[in-house]
Amino acid sequence: MEFELGEQAEALRTRLRELLAEMLPENWAGPFSDDERVRAVADRVCQRLARERLLTIDWPAEYGGAGASVWEQTVLREEMWAHLEPRGAQYMGLSWVGPTIMRFGTEEQRREHLPPIAGGRVVWCQGFSEPEAGSDLGSLSLGATRDGDGWLLSGQKIWTSYAPIADWCFLAARTARAEGAKTHGVTIFLVPMDRPGVTVRPIDSMLGVLHLNELYFDGARVTGADVLGTVDHGWEVIKFVLGHERIGIPRYARDDRLLAELSGLDGAGGGAFGLELVRALVHARLARLLSYRAVARREAGTLTDREASTARMAAIQLDQEVASLALNALGPNGIAPSGGGELLGHAEDIYRYARSATIASGTIEIQRMLVARALTSEETT
Amino acid sequence: MNRAWTATAQEMAATLRTALAGLGGVDLARAAEADPAVRAARLAPVLDSTGVLDLDAFGADGDEAGAAVLAVRACGAVVAPWPVTRVLAVPPAARAEVDAVFVVDGTPTHLDHADLVGRAVAVPVAGDRVHRVRALGGPKRAPLDPFRVAVALESLVAAPVPGALTRATVLDAFWTAGALGSVTRLAAGYAADRRQFGRPIASFGEIRWRIADMAVAADGLDELSAYTWDLARRGRATPADALALRVATQDAADVVLRNGHQVFGAIGLCEEHDLAVIDRHLTPVLLRPAGAQRTTELLLAEVNRHGFDALFPVAPRDVG
Ligand SMILES: Cc1cc2nc3c(=O)[nH]c(=O)nc-3n(C[C@H](O)[C@H](O)[C@H](O)COP(=O)(O)OP(=O)(O)OC[C@H]3O[C@@H](n4cnc5c(N)ncnc54)[C@H](O)[C@@H]3O)c2cc1C
């Protein structure tokens, strides 16, 4: 039993910090802004990481990866999140679209999609949620009706992050009425966002631009070549995707950085603020360790809902705890963004976004349900 | 990163678990509470025969050190009535002169099981003035302190006990993790069995919520205990690391015990139920040397003095 991530992983951390210090502008506030110049930074970061073979370090070598250890991969995710995700919206392609296409794609699909993802040149969005299918994703109903050798898509997706800037959509549609299980009859399509009949409508939200959008399909045509995996058996693919997403973002990494900055404030050495701060430090360490447990279990092929969702629960609650602590510590001075190189200058943005931590990618209630179910079945079998 | 306990360590712990189960599990704690002589008569021989009390929980031998903390965890799982953690907190080099270490905050009037360890010392949670502990008679039971023994702190001991805070804290954390693991398992099993309104109570959202919170707390403590133990074995655990674990131990116990009781309803309050016994018997472990507020203050003082290791480490503060 030992917890060191290893020399290579720590060396990678140092290298990434140097690289980001060099590439990120002074007042870097993350890529999710209207400003084209800001998004250009994300593109530059991705392409630089790609040149240095760091963008897809966890991919197998045959797809341009460096076959990095799971801990190097963890370090990469931690450093990216801690620095406000300088890869921008590309991270989805890297973290799950690419691996899913490797697993389920045809040779042609792999050739078409993997190189641009690995090169940091493409943005994907995830078209799963619908107005009537949120937590209950299996009840999704966006229709794909037969039309000659293809299908016509009609219906709506919602909450689709980055849809306005996405090149491709990873779309779940219903090709058949559910028989038996309601998840039967779902098919995954890889749809270019410029296909006729696809429209995006941004939703004005407290999170800021790009995060939430509506996505309409009005007779957009897809063919067998656009299908990922098997027709009507898309739920298999969705399960694989959710499996990749389930350990989730290493939120504790940014929280660690924010806590380190908070500890430098006047007043952090004592009083109620000091006590809350050290408690949050303990919670951040716990969240990191639970996440490491889940990563190790996934690597060993023994990950269950218990490890995946306890890690998520700890991390998302930490995110909200630290965001509140930061905004309250700053008081009225923190309500408006003050910019600068420190995370604390973006405390209000972090606070707004933290409202979604317990909702996005499966709500905390669903995580709790999964953990409880895992435990009760462990005790009854 | 290697998150596996060695096979040898696991085997030794399994042997002890079987032996403890043979003594009745939590029933042994019940029996000892009714008659403290049970501790020496029934538990001591098992601890002797398995060699648990001679192990070095922080030494270079991974099998032995792992076996020691897993043994502590197994004892905690049934709140075995013996000061195992106090004995193992003594560094091997000091065992010729010292039988047990109690970490104290100020001058305690009582310590648990102090009558069982002849040459015990008291080490302050902050500072290094080590005193001998003299037990004044046998246990005088209180509901939340079943083996409390009146003590007097006597003459100063010349040699300090290095790393006492870290060792004691890590061992207490494993003990508590064992107890909380038992409670979590009991609650999950009960939720699946107990039916109300025609359904298992595990199908109610509120009960699932509680069980999930218990799992996060108990599993988190398991991880942090092992992590801090690993730091301590490398000689890298600071007092802040130890106190962070202590804060997590107290927090986890609060979440698990409160929610555990709620899942059981009235039956969990009965003395014949293991939950009630584990809850009461764990309390002294959680409150000595200090309660949650004071422990957090001690942590803050250490973080100010030495900083705190993290992905973005907290720097020490200039405290005048
Ligand atoms: C920032 C953000 C980005 C997102 N990006 C995307 C994206 O890119 N693509 C995409 O497809 N989706 C995306 N989502 C959608 C996200 O997956 C859903 O919001 C989530 O699955 C919950 O669905 P819902 O919002 O419809 O809430 P609902 O499912 O309607 O839930 C409302 C409340 O009811 C609770 N609830 C529901 N069912 C149960 C139950 N069985 N037991 C107990 N409580 C229950 C929920 O926990 C929640 O508290 C995003 C969401 C957010 C916030």
Mind sketching the topology for me?
The complex is a heterodimer of chains A (381) and B (320).
Chain A: H1 7-23, H2 36-51, H3 70-82, H4 91-104, H5 107-118, E1 124-127, E2 143-147, E3 150-158, E4 168-174, E5 186-192, E6 198-202, E7 213-223, E8 227-228, H6 234-245, H7 251-262, H8 271-300, H9 305-330, H10 347-354, H11 364-380
Parallel strand pairs in A: 1-4
Antiparallel strand pairs in A: 2-3, 3-7, 4-5, 5-8, 6-7
Helix pairs in contact in A: 1-3, 3-7, 4-5, 4-6, 7-8, 7-9, 8-9, 9-10, 9-11
Chain B: H1 7-22, H2 26-34, H3 37-50, H4 62-77, H5 84-88, E1 100-104, E2 110-112, E3 120-124, E4 131-135, E5 148-156, H6 164-193, E6 195-196, E7 199-200, H7 205-233, H8 239-264, H9 274-287, H10 292-306
Parallel strand pairs in B: 1-3
Antiparallel strand pairs in B: 2-5, 3-4, 4-5, 6-7
Helix pairs in contact in B: 1-3, 1-4, 2-3, 2-9, 4-6, 6-7, 6-8, 6-9, 7-8, 8-9, 8-10
Bound molecules: flavin-adenine dinucleotide.
Domain Acyl-CoA oxidase/dehydrogenase middle (chain A): 125-218
Keywords (chain A): FAD, Flavoprotein, Oxidoreductase
Domain Acyl-CoA dehydrogenase/oxidase N-terminal (chain A): 7-120
